[in-house]
Design brief:
Largest sheet: 6 strands, mixed
Number of helices: 10
Mean pLDDT: 97
Bound molecules: 2'-monophosphoadenosine-5'-diphosphate
CATH class of the largest domain: Alpha Beta
Distance between the termini: 29 Å
Helix content: 25-40%
CATH topology of the largest domain: Rossmann fold
Low-confidence stretches: none
Radius of gyration: 19 Å
Strand content: 15-25%
Number of strands: 12
Oligomer: single chain
Structural class: alpha/beta
Length: 289
Amino acid sequence: MKINGKTKTCGLIGKPVEHTMSPTIHNTLAKKLGIDLVYVPFLVEQNLTAAVKGAYALNVLGMNVTVPYKSDVLKEICEVDSLAGQIGAVNTLVRVNGGYKGYNTDMTGLYRAMTGYGIKIEEEEVIILGAGGAARAVAYLCVHYGAKKVYILNRSVDKALSIAEEIRETTGKNCIEAMALQDYTKLSEEKKLCIQATSVGLSPNEEEAVIEEEAFYQKIHTGYDLIYRPTNTKFMQLVKAQGGQAYHGLKMLLYQGIEAFELWNQVQVSEALCDEVYEVMKGEMGIEE
Ligand code: ATR
């Protein structure tokens, strides 16, 4: 690419940043759309405040934020999107007058990935497996998009209970319930959407799923695993064995980037171009499916 005096800069702040896929996503998009923009990773060892202030002073157009700064960065921004504010985590900063506005495109990206697969949240009964940071954000997303009922199932039930209580308080909605994993037997037989948000099954522990009983998977019509390595997780195999549809999380990674790029550049990326970027990502990751 040719960099000149007008080239816009976007970047990623986090620690570590070495294995990120984001430069591939954004630099491919910029090239294919003919947008004069470069995207670079910035390792921020500790001084997040200086990093965000410095980025603004340097006229940086937008930033992605990754581990461990997604919550801390809220203190450094001048505005926050309502969903990101509720979740309490921001992964995208968009330059506005006087600072940056924060968004959570991890979640809007997940929503777009699911919509693309024809998966609906509105009026659905949703089971979320896990009660860590990812599960918590997914729970907010489901409530935000009008799920009829959200069940959070976790090994440590106290964590699921505290997320459910927090979401009831912040959203004023009562459609969320916490349970221990083994209590899935109490759920109705009506088939549900299930979002797998634990770290169980992640490479190299590919033979594991957080629940392995067939009886659980008979209650699932669609399974979405946030994990994308491997691309056919044990959870997905168990969903499919009972006749359900199952998807891995790589499209979520794609669309969190697409949505950030759209916010920075005020463009709409076509589905055909999203597919092209997806192919580039898969190639880089050595993934075929
Ligand atoms: P993240 O921020 O990515 O969500 P996390 O906060 O560490 O990561 O959450 C990991 C989730 O995976 C938790 O729900 C965890 O269950 P606990 O809250 O009971 O720890 C779940 N998890 C991890 N290993 C697990 C295992 N072997 N069996 C069941 N659940 C597991």
